[in-house]
Specification:
GO terms for molecular function: aryl sulfotransferase activity. The protein is α/β, with parallel strands linked by helices and 308 residues long. It contains 15 helices and 4 strands.
Length: 308
């Protein structure tokens, strides 16, 4: 198991970028040219772990619960290889508000800035695979064309999704995140830097249990004072029901790359759908892999959002 960073401590130094990552989705080199500002916010996840939800939370905190703010327009996925890097960098440079950027990279493939604040969002890998299957299976031909046929792709194209979700999960587990990108190193790398003062871990399940409490933690981390009268508005616009009803504002490009549109992208927002589908052997194999890859403390946190 590769170890990129020493165990986290409050005095740990900022991680260094050690590699670039390229595939049908990624071009990590874009981060090399980002001119960071002191109040930048970076939302980091493996994928389908609550990324969009957390982007919405941050935007609502920054913009005082404004329902018209569209994270699909203001919060770019920086390491996505389309649109072209120069266009993406120009858009970021033109923004005058507090910026919210998104990444799906592990820490050692990211240019990490001590100026920015990083929110890492995690979710049980079985729930991620279920959500990822919905995302992948319902993708349109245009989605495949953009990822596979746009110049600059490194490595093989992304294939069509297996329609059988249990088989899809087994393929994803056996090949560590295929056909997307490695899962365990992503979680492990962010867990290792969890005690840095500009890193805050968020868990999908914790948000489900106590959204208001978790949003207050995020607000404190981002040093945002929210007026008492603004909280109800923020919470309303961060609820799954509100996001589903206004999916066009939060889904990338309004959801044009998925059959069913934005409401397919903002899917069910539920965990545990795998419980009645996976076999006992599947579940045991996943849990043994999590323990071996992450260690007991991180594996327990990944499964529940609670400390071991």
């Amino acid at each position: 198991m590769p170890v990129t960073f020493a165990p986290a401590s409050a005095s740990a130094t900022s991680p260094r970028k050690l590699r670039e990552m390229h595939n049908h989705h990624f071009d990590s080199t874009v981060w090399n040219d980002v001119a960071f500002r002191r109040d930048d916010v970076v939302v980091a996840t493996y994928a389908k772990a609550g990324t969009t939800w957390t982007q919405q939370i941050v935007a609502q905190l920054i913009f005082n619960g404004d329902p018209e703010v569209s994270i699909a327009e203001i919060s770019p996925w920086v390491d996505l290889r389309v649109p072209p890097a120069l266009a993406k960098l120009a858009t970021l440079e033109e923004q005058t508000h507090r910026r919210i950027m998104k990444t799906h990279l592990p820490v050692d493939a990211l240019r990490f800035s001590p100026q920015a604040k990083y929110l890492y969002v995690a979710r049980d890998g079985r729930d991620i695979a279920w959500s990822l299957h919905n995302h992948h299976f319902h993708a349109t031909d245009d989605w495949y064309a953009v990822l596979n046929d746009t110049p600059g792709r490194v490595g093989p194209p992304i294939p069509r999704a297996n329609p059988d979700v249990a088989a899809y999960f087994r393929e994803w587990l056996d090949a560590d995140g295929a056909p997307f990108w490695p899962f365990w190193e992503n979680v492990r790398s962010w867990w290792a830097v969890r005690n840095l003062p500009n890193v805050h871990l968020v868990h999908f399940e914790a948000l489900k249990r106590d959204m208001a409490g978790e949003i207050r933690k995020i607000a404190r981390f981002l040093e945002i004072d929210v007026a008492a009268g603004t909280w109800p508005r923020v919470l309303r616009h961060c609820s799954f029901d509100w996001m589903k009803a206004n999916a066009g504002q939060v889904a990338p490009l309004g959801g044009v790359f998925w059959d069913g549109g934005a409401e397919t992208f903002i899917n069910k927002g539920t965990n545990g759908r795998w419980r009645d589908v996976l076999t006992a052997e599947d579940i045991a194999r996943y849990e043994a892999t999590a323990l071996a890859e992450l260690g007991p403390e991180c594996a327990a946190w990944l499964a529940s959002g609670e400390a071991a």
